[in-house]
Amino acid sequence: MSEDVGASPNESGETPLFRSRTTEVGEWLDDAEGLTLGLDFDGTLAPIGADPEETEIYPDSRKAVEELVDHPRIEVTVISGRELADVVERVGIDGIDYAGNHGLEMRIDGEKEVHPDAVTARSEIEDLCAEIRSEIDHVPGSFVEEKGVTASVHFRQTPEEYVEEVVAAVEELAADSEEDIHVVSGKQIREIRPDVDWDKGRVVDRLDERAPDGWRTMYVGDDTTDEDAFRAVQPSGIGILVGDRPDTDADYRIENHEQVPSLLEWLATRASSPER
After folding, report:
1. Whole-prediction pTM
2. Looking at the record, which segments are called Disordered (predicted)?
3. What is the rounded average pLDDT for all residues in the chain?
């Protein structure tokens, strides 16, 4: 791997655009026996909408992932904050692996598993959701999404003057829970999780362990919760941010989710190149 690939953002402090670095990323991929590819869902394979129930995978992204399924040198895993059953249904592509609830639930080679500590905390999270729902019921645009072993409190559509009230209610009620509950910031949401040492980065670590010798890892995502995965791929892998923000550990970025299909198509073509 060259020193430039997988390095920190350039000297200007900006994360370089992927399209400006395809030569070095191509050389990195040529040196690999295969690619373990992790993909976020909301904001990456699908646009972020006001209502998570209405979100659908971007059609061009679906087509691009489907074309990777039978590629002998690429293994795809969709890693989402959504409940496992939800993300499997919304992606709906066989032949790939899935991780839901930031990896607390996984479906690897068709076999489902759930982190045991998450199972233990499920009832406490259900009770906490009921308390939060009661506390913020009067706040316009906010709602609680229960996801089995985790939950999300959304305030994307909430007027700015109410946001602090919603965040304070979530954090205070979680702190008062009998079980250890962890609150994590996301894009205009707060994630409620069992206090388990597990995140998208740990999922990436596990995928690395399963990969054949000589394979390398790439992760593509847009949210602050994807930063764990960007760090996990280092130092030999590559993280690609969808969008832009100054405080990221991603190596490169693309401008929006509509550019994800082109990225995936480029990976499939380059991984099939006879020059590698």
Report:
1. 0.85
2. 1-24
3. 91
The amino acid sitting at 239 is G
Inform me whether the pLDDT recorded for 12 exceeds 80.
no
- 31-112+200-271 has CATH 3.40.50.1000 classification: yes
The tokens for 274 are: 């006879």
Instruction: Give the whole-angstrom CA distance, residue 204 versus residue 238.
Output: 12
Lookup: tokens for 211:
């990969």
Mean pLDDT of the region 55-68: 96
Contacts with 190 (C-beta within 8 Å, 6 or more apart), sequence order: 152, 153, 166, 167, 170, 171, 183, 184
Ordered by start, the domain boundaries in the chain are 31-112+200-271, 116-194
pLDDT reported for residue 196: 86
Residue 194, amino acid: P
What is the CA 270 to chain-centroid distance, rounded? 24
Point out the residues that are catalytic: 40
Superfamily of domain 116-194: Trehalose-6-phosphate phosphatase related protein; domain 2 (3.30.70.1020)
The answer to whether residues 36 and 215 touch, using CB atoms and an 8 Å cutoff, is: yes
